[in-house]
Design a protein that fits this description.
Helix content: over 70%
Shape: globular
Oligomer: single chain
Number of domains: 2
Length: 287
């Protein structure tokens, strides 16, 4: 592939067109949902589609402030409660997976026994298995032991999403750390846990942060666990979006506004952790 300094003007134009096409392919659905969230029901169902319309914030007002009846009664909207539930469930699941997954990933990265590959494949298989194949047994177990519609139960079941991702991603970063660093720490008298917490984890923090972002997003977007294992107390935001579907119609504007609001926490987490990733890479380069 020719270097940037040797590319001809036509190659730059083709490359720019390729980037624009990929960007349009990725961003067009998001832009379409955003425009839909600003339309009235008549503008949404209009054919041909209306690109010029009078925007309204009524859909966002109903999502964030509640229906007119809820506003009159002074009740909090249900969607904000669903948003808080997802923050508790996804955040708790990622934190628990990080505490468990980092030692497991470090052990797998430094393991030399024959079954290490099988263990890694087992964790990977958790992502292969369809959730529908285990959701019914989980429902029966949860109702028997009292974990149905509870935060601990939802955080535990989300380990099937977050824990394999944390282990698989961070294992690769731990492998890239030279073993000589661990040997030097051992010579200084550091134990295995002290070495892991004070030496290995700070070096691998960019990779750990990346794994946490990906695990959080996958957990946040999960629907099937909330659909079957959550009730009124722990219903996540993905279930809140479905509240726009009634027995006689689909309120597309309300669903689009709910989807846009639900996407904000994930984007904020990505932006916040991205700053720490960049900082970690910079500190590593200076060191």
């Amino acid at each position: 592939m020719p270097s940037a300094s040797r590319r001809s003007p036509s190659q730059f134009v083709l490359l720019g067109l390729a980037y624009a096409a990929v960007g349009f392919f990725i961003l067009f659905p998001i832009a379409w949902i955003f425009l839909m969230s600003l339309k009235t029901f008549g503008d949404i169902i209009a054919y041909p589609p209306r690109f010029l319309f009078t925007p309204t914030l009524e859909n966002y007002a109903e999502v964030l402030l509640g229906t007119p009846a809820e506003r009159a009664a002074g009740q909090a909207p249900d969607f904000l409660r669903y948003l808080g539930n997802s923050l508790i469930i996804s955040g708790g699941a990622v934190l628990l997976s990080t505490l468990i997954g980092i030692p497991a990933a470090f052990a797998l990265a430094r393991s030399r026994f024959r079954g290490a590959g099988n263990i890694r494949f087992t964790f990977l298989s958790f992502r292969f298995a369809p959730e529908l194949s285990i959701i019914l047994p989980l429902y029966l177990i949860y109702t028997q032991i009292g974990l149905y519609d509870s935060y601990p139960g939802m955080i535990l079941v989300h380990q099937l999403i977050t824990l394999p991702l944390i282990i698989l991603i961070t294992t690769g970063f731990f492998r890239d750390i030279p073993p000589e660093i661990e040997e030097a720490a051992a010579l200084d008298g550091a134990g295995i846990w002290s070495m892991l917490a004070r030496v290995i984890v700070p070096i691998a923090m960019p990779g750990i942060a990346s794994a946490m972002i990906i695990a959080f997003i996958f957990s946040w977007n999960n629907l099937i666990f909330g659909l079957v294992l959550a009730g009124g107390a722990t219903r996540p935001v993905t279930m809140g979006i479905l509240q726009a579907m009634t027995f006689d119609q689909i309120r597309w504007g309300l669903m689009a506004a709910s989807a846009m609001v639900a996407a904000v926490p994930g984007m904020l987490v990505a932006v916040w952790v991205q700053k720490h990733i960049t900082r970690g890479l910079t500190l590593g380069a200076v060191k």
